[in-house]
């Protein structure tokens, strides 16, 4: 691929936030208005896409579990190729480009090709969705540390998550709905209390948002019982008992246990 930098083209890796268009940054909105091309993923909310002017070309590279419209390597090639023609290219990504967004790979590809590239951060799903749910990820009384992990990581059974959840810690799991039962079993096997409060936030920050709350031991059953669909976050920790959520009573005593934490 041609690696001579374009004199005018530039690539922007832009975070679209968790879904609500009002949470888009001003800088991101300005770039959408002035772009020649917007390459967006499937997690970008419809309200954000509506802000793209009609004359701006757009390409969807939406990905779903086990089914990708375009492989990441081809996305990288597309971004580089279009920018080298002199276009102002916005790569619009749900949440923040550098938190489970593969933005680092796209930045590496741009650098290797000599393409000018800049990153515009966005509100990541953990922060935006937890705030909407009234769930503080850190709290002076309940949590002094917070960890973000991917629930669809390779070799899940080989991971050691024992230090990520429990006393004074909050664990936020992205992309974990399909593996919720395995995640709960793994955490419990690694020593996390089965009675740890858990919140599940589905379609956070949107008009269709749903927040459910239970205990770790019930997580997999909750996801199945309530037919939870992606995109959704799992938040495990004492702070989950503070969420503005529906207590799911599939396990006897769950409401009483959650009141003990609140």
TrEMBL record:
Keyword Transferase included in the entry's annotation: yes
Family classification: Belongs to the precorrin methyltransferase family.
Keywords: Cobalamin biosynthesis, Methyltransferase, Porphyrin biosynthesis, S-adenosyl-L-methionine, Transferase
Name the record gives this protein: uroporphyrinogen-III C-methyltransferase
Residue span(s) of domain Tetrapyrrole methylase: 10-219
Any one GO biological process: cobalamin biosynthetic process
Known pathway: Porphyrin-containing compound metabolism; siroheme biosynthesis; precorrin-2 from uroporphyrinogen III: step 1/1; Cofactor biosynthesis; adenosylcobalamin biosynthesis; precorrin-2 from uroporphyrinogen III: step 1/1
Superkingdom of source: Bacteria
Keyword field contains Cytoplasm: no
GO molecular function annotation: uroporphyrin-III C-methyltransferase activity
Gene: cobA
Primary enzyme class: transferase
Membrane-traversing stretches: none
Listed EC numbers: 2.1.1.107
Record InterPro entries: 4pyrrol_Mease (IPR000878), 4pyrrol_Methylase_sf (IPR035996), 4pyrrole_Mease_sub1 (IPR014777), 4pyrrole_Mease_sub2 (IPR014776), CobA/CysG_C (IPR006366), Siro_Cobalamin_biosynth (IPR050161), Uropor_MeTrfase_CS (IPR003043)
Classification via PROSITE patterns: SUMT_1, SUMT_2
């Amino acid at each position: 691929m041609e690696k001579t930098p374009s004199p005018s083209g530039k690539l922007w890796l832009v975070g679209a936030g968790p879904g609500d268009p009002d949470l888009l940054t001003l800088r991101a909105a300005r770039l959408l208005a002035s772009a020649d091309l917007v390459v967006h993923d499937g997690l970008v909310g419809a309200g954000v896409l509506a802000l793209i002017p009609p004359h701006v070309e757009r390409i969807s590279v939406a990905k779903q579990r086990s089914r990708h419209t375009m492989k990441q390597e081809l996305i990288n090639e597309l971004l580089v190729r279009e920018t080298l023609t002199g276009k102002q290219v916005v790569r619009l990504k749900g949440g923040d480009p550098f938190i489970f967004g593969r933005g680092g790979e796209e930045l590496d590809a741009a650098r290797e090709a000599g393409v000018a590239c800049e990153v515009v951060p966005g509100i990541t799903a953990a922060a935006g969705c937890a705030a909407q749910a009234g769930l503080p990820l850190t709290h002076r009384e309940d949590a002094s540390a917070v960890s973000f992990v991917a629930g669809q990581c390779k070799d899940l059974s080989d991971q050691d998550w024992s230090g990520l959840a429990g006393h004074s810690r909050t664990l936020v799991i992205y992309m974990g709905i399909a593996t919720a039962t395995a995640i709960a079993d793994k955490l419990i096997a690694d020593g996390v209390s089965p009675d740890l409060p858990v919140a599940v936030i589905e379609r956070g920050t949107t008009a269709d948002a749903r927040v459910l709350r239970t205990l770790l031991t019930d997580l997999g059953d909750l996801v199945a019982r309530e037919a939870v669909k992606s995109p959704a976050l799992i938040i495990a920790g004492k702070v989950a008992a503070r969420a503005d959520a529906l207590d799911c009573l599939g396990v006897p005593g769950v409401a009483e246990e959650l009141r003990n934490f609140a």
